[in-house]
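Worked example 4.2. Below are the chains of a multi-component assembly; read each line carefully before continuing.
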Amino acid sequence: MSITNGPMPDDATGLRKTSRLGALLQRSEAARGFTLLSPTLFIMAVGILVPIGILVVMSFWTQVGFGFDTTATTANYQMAAERPIYGALLRRSLWMSGMATMATVILSYPMAYFVAFHVHRNKMMWIVLITLPFWTSYLLRVFAWKVVLGYHGVINSALMNLGLIEAPLEFLLYSQSAVVITLAHAWAAFAILPMYVSLEKIDKSLLEAATDLGDGPIARFLRITLPLSLPGVISASLLIFIPTTGDYITPTLLGGPDGAMIGNLIQKQFGAINNWPMGAALSIILMLSIGAIAVSFMLIANFVRKRIS
Amino acid sequence: MTQNDAFISIQNVNKYFGKFHAINDVSIDIKHGEFFSLLGSSGCGKTTLLRMLAGFENPTSGEIYIDGQPMSGVPPHHRPVNMVFQSYAIFPHLNVRDNIAYGLRKQKLPRAQRDALVDEMLDLIKLPDYGDHKANQLSGGQRQRIALARSLILRPKVLLLDEPLGALDKQLREQMQLELRALQKTVGITFVFVTHDQEEALTLSDRMAVMSNGRDLQVDTPTRLYESPINREVASFIGTMNFFDGRVKALTNGGAEIEAVGLGNLCTSNIPPNLKPGQSVCVAIRPEKLSLSRDAQSGFNQVKGRLDNAAYLGERSHYYVSIEGVSKPVAVSVQNRQRANGNGENQCPVWLSWEDNAFVVLGNG
Amino acid sequence: MSRHSYIKRPNRPLQFYAALFLVVLYLPVLFLPLFSFNTSIYVKFPLTGFTFQWYVELMDREPVWAALMNSLRVGITTSIISTGFGVFAAKAITRYRLPGKGPLIGFIMLPLVVPGIIFGVALLVLISRLGIQLSLVTVTVGHVIVCLPFAIATMIPRFEGFDPSVEEASADLGENAWWTFWRVTFPMVFPGILASLLLTFTVSFDEFIMAFFLSGTDPTLPMYIWSQLRFPKEFPSILALASIILVVSFALVFLGQWLNRDTQATDLNSE
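Applying the procedure described above to all three chains together yields the following structure tokens:
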């Protein structure tokens, strides 16, 4: 054994002097963690907190010609409350994305259930296949629906070719239903993930236990599977409802005047109408409404969950 | 620092994780070249203490000295210690040879010399032909040896081992215990060994610390920990122990006479310091220090009881005997080669006897 | 004798539903390439004939090439920055006890759910108040904010997937944080880094709403498509362009997901 007299000097693993900063980082785990996190936090602060702060400030200004009157006033909020068009558009947006959310969750749940319980080989392949469209261009996916639903589009021309209709169906494009269908379709891939994860986490022996104790398939689903997957359903609902309420592309391409949403109005304030403070106020109102609905939804869901269990 | 012969000195160390007091005022001295074990059930703080020696956790207060140097603020890569992780932490993207040579980078050795060192380690751990194997082609025992070699090649002043045998099956574990002990004697490095397995700690250690709830209950040699535990917690943690309430009748030359409930008077020199006559104490005895017989024997300390229950364990049997005035049946361990007269029947009267000094008087706590 | 347990036995209607679901998920998008090879300038049945004409025409358009170059520049910069920041953020989130970690992660993940229009206009307001000219740089800033959560969410499962004591072992064997990163962490999370580069590039390359508010005179490819949508006679060549983008996007994302495949189940839901 020559371990004790190798070529290494005895103090090779000895102590080094560490700098003060080094010593601080060594002592404080949180300091090291925050150092690593700092570039991300910096860009998120500069890109989210500061801009939204300024947006809040600007919402209390007023537009004067091409400049701003920076005296603080609640005029924008008052106008938003008084003019029926704003409230109507907001309510319509919430309603439409609520419909889209419900449709997506109901239609996607069986798919998530299928992958979680009935796919045994190549599970990952299925997940990739389902989520793949979500990562690709939202604009082009909406554009594809325009091609499908258009006046001379796929459905109309196919139906006319088959002789089923005389003239194109006009309600397909530029309607609320066109927007709801497209939103539901576009976000389905996103909705499946959280539901799949919470279904996958369910211990299969629980289901066997329920069967053993006398539950049939339907009772078992209602008493075990559904309650346990509820967290996934809740997060899926929020993950769709929140971003779709403020969507701009879909209502612009497919909504027409009937299907316009609050996003269109906000964009107009920053574009054609050129009233940035009003646009800022509308953005804040949109954020607050979404936040209020999301929080009350979560509270209700929690309450229901406690009642069930 | 005036340290007598302490190579590692843990002094009044406390560690909080949030509000959780993980290490509670622990002070331990470890000598150079010692095989030292930290024994305790999971969550007792033994791994936290080991990770503080390695530098992965920092004490909230107190100081750790290694070879006379204070360790606070010294990062893991500057400490003269190496660690064998519970999971072995073999680098999965490197082969065995590169795993073992990992820590040699900074020494900038010529390739031939480095290879020679690695070969030497491969021989030492008895895996000479495994240099090119990938980490995922190795068994648990092989991974454990590679983790050892990877640390030992750097010739640390202290080797820390975090339950390194926990993942192995029983037979392999016993073999590795022997090898580990032999290896430590060969390389002469101080080992600090964490385990929850009392038998393992008793077999391997020169000295050991019994830990519970973040405190070190007793630091001593395996023999003394087993024979003379300082309090009831240590006594019941290691092995089986029978406890009796008692009172100090008189102090004798280096010992005491105790009047124990159910047993009568007994003499022992296993006593804590500062014992006073009249004081209530707890006395304890190991099951193997009691003898069992059907008839009273002359010239022995003895008490009559009733056989409650017997458990046959192969090389030995455990009998449980109830004694009047003692709530819990007394456990007696008997080597089965003495078991000539067959099983006793339940409820038959028996005599328990013991020699002087077989009892330990426990301190309070 | 059934191969499956009672719970897992095959369910025909559900299998049918799943197949139908996948078909419907992909069908609308498939009409874009279908009509991009159609000779007619109108997007309608019946198909009139097969042609590469629209693709050839696309090649001759200077603005398409310019927009493509813009999108590549923004996409590559965005993917490198967000993946670089994301590696460190994912490591911090998975490896360190940080006070207020939960809310911090929630904050970082905000761009995944908050409507893009809010961040778009908010950044627009900030940039104009600072007097900065809108350009590809401002678009890149917007895209980094959108892509960072994706990068972090892609890499967190990677970090969670390997034993943290492997990094500790490296420190224990004498390597400092820098060398430990290059000798252990980087090789271990490398598939995640590649996946993150591909995914964030695709998200940036396809992103519209931030570019819509934040781009100056140089349009990105989605911006170019948007501007051409109102000209009916441009429709077929836009279909051709859209088809190319979709094929490339699908390929990149598929590759990225494949590289990162052993971490799929927890993807995006790791917090």
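Take a moment to check your reading of the output against the notes. Chain B is about 20% helix and 35% strand. Chain B has a mean pLDDT of 88.
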